[in-house]
Predict the structure.
Amino acid sequence: MALDPRNLPSEVTTFLTERHLATLTTLRSDNTPHVVAVGFTWDPDEQLVRVITFAPSRKARNVAERPGSAAAVCQVDGGRWLTLEGRATVTDDPGRVAEAVRRYAGRYSEPKQRTDRVVIEIAVDRIMGRG
């Protein structure tokens, strides 16, 4: 079922705040998918997914090499699932990274300190799922 990212049902919003991991799919330079397990946060006001990582990671390099390329996060819990799709960018802007870390700590736990921390941001324009 397709959902409007600007107007999600409460059960979907709740699912996006529960402590679940997800997969992040980015595209390699040859257009093949790179899929890894991640923690992520959803910002309903910005319709933005945030994934913290470190600059040399493959997922960050995939996005850095192709800013604005398609990316998706998929969270699954039994028969419930959501896929959030959109265009991805990666940034090391201190304010954006700090906001991503703050949100991550609220959903999961405080991440270890890193000097090479970056955040992948996905501007979500499509959500699919079943709850």
Notes: Residues 94-107 form the longest helix (14 residues).
